[in-house]
Amino acid sequence: MISERRMLDPDIHTLAVTIIWLAQERMKEHKYQNINSAVHSVTLDIEQELMEFMALHKL
């Protein structure tokens, strides 16, 4: 598990744990998803949010 490994940046570790938690919650709603597809789905949603933020702020 991620918590057993040391990561260089604790913020990245926190983000990864949060993404995994979100994926696990999503799996409860969508029983057909496995952890891989749920993580992928969450990261796609995050990417969309980041793209919208960058477009809004002209970054």
| Percentage of residues in DSSP E strands | under 5%
- Low-confidence segments, ≥5 residues, pLDDT <50? none
Structural class: mainly alpha
Which geometry do the CA atoms define? flat
For the CA atoms, what is the radius of gyration? 14 Å
Q: Calculate the terminal CA-CA distance, rounded to whole Å.
A: 35 Å
What string, H for helix and E for strand, traces the elements in order?
Answer: HH
Tally of helical runs: 2
Number of β-strand runs: 0
Helix content range of the residues, please? over 70%
Q: How many domains is the backbone divided into? A: 1
Overall pLDDT confidence: 90
Task: Summarize the main sheet.
Answer: none
Structure characteristics:
2 helices; 71% helix; 59 residues; mainly alpha; single chain
Description:
The chain is mainly alpha-helical and 59 residues long. It has one domain. It has helices at residues 10-29, 35-56. Helix 1 (10-29) crosses helix 2 (35-56). The mean pLDDT is 90.
Topology, please?
Elements: H1 10-29, H2 35-56
Short description:
The protein is mostly helical. It has two helices and no strands.
